[in-house]
Amino acid sequence: MKKNISKAVGLALAAVMAFSLTGCGSSATQNNTQTETTEGTESAATTDSTSDGSTQAASGEKIVNVGITDTLGGVNPLMTDQTNINKYAVGLEFLPLMELDADLNFQPMLADSITTEDNINFIVHLDEKATWSDGIPVTAEDVEFTVLRLASPVIANSTMMLYRFEGVGDADFPFVEEGATSIDGVKVIDDKTIQFTTKEPLALTTFQSAYACYILTLPKHVLEQYTEEELSTLDWFNHPDVISGPYFLNDYDVNHYISYTANANYWKGAPKIDKLNIKIVDSSQVYAGLQSGEIDIVLPSMTAIPQEDYENIEKLENIEVVYGSPVTNQSVFIQTKNITDARVRQALLYAIDRNQILEQLMKGHGEVVDGFLSSAGPFFDENITATPYDPEKAKELLAEAGWDGSQTLRFYVNSGDGTFVKAAQVMVAQWAAVGIKVEVQTVDLATLMTIAGTTDYDLFAVQYTYVPLDPYPDVAWLLGGEESWTGYGDEEVNAALEATQTAGSTEEIKEYYSVVDQKMQEDVPMFSAYIISAQGAVNKRLTGVTVDVYGFFNNIHEWDIAE
Prior knowledge:
7-stranded mixed beta sheet
């Protein structure tokens, strides 16, 4: 089975990207966000301060502000990529079928079960209680309608990788034929049951993490009147009036805020928090926002808190601090079409002191590994020793490769991640010491993702969470050949990844992923700068909030403000 998708900007994206992919915002566009008074930051204009420095609506409404440093790509669920901020921004309105929780279990959202007997046919049963905000039941036809539009060549969103299903094209054309009214691999069984059929065996965890967590079902009875071309730009998505999730979108600015109002008819229970604001801020503003109460929550996966602020945030009396598991990978991708010699790529890795970077910039909150997998997951091979810092070895490899030092490599970095911007400068200095000239270019997440969809870079870095229970979709895509972010393909890697989908035990799957990570050491189409145990925080006035990389919004309707 082919893994590459034609220059897709997202990834499953994780498959769940984490911080940036999970995230990233541009500091150049965010420096003025704290003082603006908009609907998305309305608490600054319409709230009174409380004794703990937090804010509460003068009218008695309960308002919660979530601070992130990512920028928003868009709110049309048919058009957005799979970055965490886009996924969650839309998922608050249109629920996914399933979602991971903080314990890495799949939690029912719109669906109450997903089963398979052959890893080919997947039966999705929707919750019998699931209804739209207008009272009409959510049905399997809504899911079919949504998937058919996601597979449309008119809408042309390739990030969902739907070519794995019968009736959809291949990796080079991951769509159905224009005008198609059905998909062979997506069949309605009854009002609450739909069957997905894949072309080749797929692990249940892969179906859940790559599809069930990312298919955000839309209301057919509202949207079937529009053509696919109209749906790609429909203003309705900017303020939808029929949703399945806990919050209606009110307004947004991709660089500053997203504001929501509670769905009183939410079928899982009316949210206790009346208004929710996601405030997009510069990383340097997070500490002050938590201290003043203008920010109630920051996430380990979407907020790049400067390491120098960690200790100060820990000292805040109004804040509870949480460190997430080491799952957020600060990945550096190398475009192998441009840096063709594996010895040069190996030299890039040998030349940097990743442990020093981790200790000095991350205060030791994380780990250094090679490849994709971290110690937080069940498939991590503790016997694979990370490539050591060895600048002399780097020089030897460069000499063997005939590297003359005249080329300047272009290294694109997320401007919203201030800590890694500093790390990149350290890396550049260490590369220069062995004779590799590298120029750092900082850009916001949207620009970085656009660049990633081309080959017009030599290296780029982004925080990426590879789902510990199922890294397959991301890893397979990223190593999927010419049109992937790395431009790298290898038959041994492909075979190992395919085998993970039919392996019978955790130990067997672990062996296959070990093959992949060992090949990453040898060929270095990517490397992990470090794995982050990122800081998150929540104001103590809130109850029912779980701050973690996964499951953060799953039970948002149960959040409350302590009396």
